[in-house]
Amino acid sequence: MLMRCFRAAFTLIELMVVVAIITIVVAIALPTVMEARKSGNEGNAVGSLRTIAAGQALFREADRDGDGLTDYGNLAELAAADVIDQILATGTKAGYRFETEPAIGDGSPDWRLMMYYSVANPRKMDVTGNRAYASNYSGVIFYTQQLYVVVPGSDLQKYAIIPPEMYPIK
Q1: Burial letters 110-149, b for 16+ CB under 10 A, else e
Q2: Which residues are CB-contacts of 169 (< 8 A; sequence separation ≥ 6)?
Q3: Which residues of the chain have pLDDT under 70?
Q4: Beta pairing class for 96-102 and 141-144
Q5: What pLDDT sits at residue 86?
Q6: How confident is the model over 78-116, as pLDDT tens digits?
Q7: Is 77 within a domain?
Q8: How much is the pLDDT for 135?
Q9: 132, 147 Cβ separation under 8 angstroms
Q10: Would 26 be classed as within a structural domain?
Q11: Is residue 58 part of a domain?
């Protein structure tokens, strides 16, 4: 009598079917996961701009840099005064790049006392976020669907005026 020896193993066809099923599941789930990540990055950017606004208020009112002037600061000054965290102070957080500066006005130092602006741009548009954000001394956060570059001499840089192509977050 012949005894057959069977091995308990998967055939090549079975393995290929499993790989195909996994590939289909990943192809369906990946866009949803990426959109959720972008949405999370955008929410983090808005929260970071709110943190900067609160930090600017503390920095200004408490004269945190100790220069005797109630002025606004940039990211490094805000971090040195412990009103924002060190991660945000680097200018890059959760897929966004941040820029915060006092307004320069007509060039006199008095403008630092009155106004500032903040801008948050995705590190890579449509990958780490779909919107750019901006805020100023009013604390209102605005957005646009494209990267926003602070142009030297622009109304935003001089007077912290949010450009008309940006919309307030409701």
Answers
A1: ebbebbbbbbbbbeeeeebbbbbbbbbbeeebbbbeeebe
A2: 46, 133, 140, 141, 142, 143
A3: 1-7, 65, 107-112, 170
A4: unpaired
A5: 95
A6: 999 999 999 999 999 999 999 998 887 776 666 667 789
A7: yes
A8: 93
A9: yes
A10: yes
A11: yes
Q: Are 100 and 78 in contact (CB under 8 A)?
A: yes
Contacts 24+ apart (CB under 8 A), 108-115: 109/69, 111/158, 111/159, 112/69, 112/71, 112/72, 113/69, 113/70, 113/71, 113/72, 115/72, 115/159, 115/160
Task: Specify the number of domains making up the chain.
Answer: 1
Is there a domain that residue 116 lies in? yes
Q: How far apart are CA 65 and CA 55, in angstroms?
A: 12
pLDDT reported for residue 62: 83
| pLDDT of res. 9 | 74
Predicted confidence at residue 110, as pLDDT, reads: 67
